[in-house]
Amino acid sequence: MNPAPAAPVPTSIFAPGLRSASVGAAGLIALFALEYIAVGAAMPTVAAALDGYALYNLAFGATVAASVVGMIVGGWWCDRSGPGPVVVAGSALFAAGLLVAGLAPGMEIFVLGRGLQGLGSGLSTVAVYVVIAQRIPDARRPAVFSLLAAAWVVPGLAGPLLTGLLVEQLSWRWVFLGVAPFVVLSLLVLRPALRGTHPGADAPYLRPSTIAWAVAAAVSVALLNLAGERVEGLEWLVGGAAVVVLLGSALRLLPPGTLTLGRGLASVIGVRAALGASFVTAEAYLPLMLRDEHGYSPAQAGSVLAAASVTWALGSWLQGRLPETTDRYRVMLVGVVVFTAMMVLLGLVVVVAGPGWVVVLLYGLATLGVGLAYPTTTLLTMRLSPPSEVGRNTSALAVGEALGSAVALALAGVAFGAFYGSQQHTAFVGTLAVAVGVGALSVLSASRTRETPPGARVADAPAVTGADA
To answer: Where in the cell does this protein reside (predicted)?
Structure first.
């Protein structure tokens, strides 16, 4: 008796069987992106209104720190119970954080709300990618990742303007309160897709010690963020201890071999961590550099981020339309090479104090490479993961990026704090040097992502499974 033929793969991610997962996932990611971008624009007003400049940095650091815990718990929970309850719980926490921040009477409560947002977005982001892994066929995932990239573009372009209008015409509180209802709407769109999800395994890898290391990593991220702009005296000791704890946490939270760029999945996670850390560091300081060194207005300085949003989406759109037979390892390598080459040129332009428009152009070209490589790391992580460990490895992908970004921002913060007051140009050169150096690691890591090196016999290089990596 012949087996039944496989069901045909829908030609569009908006086909009836895929529409809920595609549109619902994009909706949630767009809300996370909008809040990420809007908070940056609204924070000066928030800090002034709540007399909270002393906790300004922690308002950002609390979100990153809590998201690390959310990512770890989210990966375990998805494998154990399926992504459905994780998406719902994470979205509920994110919405609760929006309400707490929007109604906060003081900066301490506002920071608490930001922490809840980070915990919720960490849980939901991991779960959304597990939903995609379970509900979207492999051949259509690149197109879904293109849609998710587009979900970042609109907030990147409209977020600062919308935030400015809300702050000026209503109140900064509506930057948070106005987003909460849309979380519910996105969940309703995603709900049909959640019905078809399922657990992976019992996830025995999550032990109390794992949660303890996740919390330790979160505390370290918060300490590094507080160190921020100035490190002197005892702060050197505290910052150094935080970095050591962060590295120790990474050894226990990420697949073995990630820090040493082992072949296969470990190096895919390494690519994502290096890329994320590099562009997050660059974007933290490029707008300020354009303002201080080139006299750009806030809106003009923000053009570097707007250009990056558009080119990132373009790169992601291009990778989403490549043939199904395309070598995705090569796509990722091309992306990181483009990114690193443009970042090196950008660094040289900053050193010689070149024109601001060249900075915007080169960074836009750099993020075109990110658009090619970034979604490809997610696709390859799914391909290299057994079904029972998609949650775990997707979580590791996000955690690696968060921890890498924390370390890179801390290093850039030391360089910036040491020179900004007396040698402003040197301070910006130092921050770009960190971004370029970390980004270059993505090329080395990308060269080791194939489980079997090109030209080697399979017998010479055993495959690395998700459990081994």
So the answer is: Cell membrane
The pLDDT of residue 159: 66
User: Quick one: which H or E segment has residue 137?
Assistant: none
Q: What is the pTM of this model?
A: 0.72
- The predicted structure's pLDDT at residue 465: 33
Nearest CA among 368, 370, 343 for reference residue 431: 343
Q: What is the largest CA-CA distance in the chain?
A: 81
406 and 239 Cβ atoms separated by less than 8 Å: no
Q: What length does the chain have? A: 469
**pLDDT tens for each residue of 10-40:** 667 777 777 788 888 888 888 888 877 777 6
334 phi, psi to nearest 5 deg: -60, -45
Close Cβ partners of 408 (under 8 Å, ≥ 6 residues apart): 277, 278, 280, 281, 434, 435, 438
Compute, in degrees rounded to 10, the torsion defined by CA atoms 417, 421, 424, 430. Answer: -20
Which domains does the chain carry? 13-206 (1.20.1250.20), 256-469 (1.20.1250.20)
The whole-angstrom distance between residue 33's C-alpha and the CA centroid of its chain comes to: 10
Q: Which two tokens stand for residue 241?
A: 């201890």
Distance in angstroms between the alpha carbons of the first and the last residue of the chain:
39
Alpha-carbon torsion, ordered 182, 187, 190, 194, to 10 deg:
170
The tokens for 195 are 């019905």
CA-CA distances (angstroms) from residue 226 to 56, 413, 432, 458? 9, 10, 21, 48
The pair of structure tokens assigned to 193 is 């897709």
* Residues with pLDDT less than 50, the chain: 1, 3-5, 454-469
User: What span, in angstroms and rounded, lies between the C-alpha atoms of 316 and 372?
Assistant: 5
Question: Which of 159, 183, 367 has its CA nearest to residue 275?
Answer: 367
pLDDT per residue as tens digits for the range 151-160: 777 776 666 6
Q: What is the CA radius of gyration of the chain?
A: 21
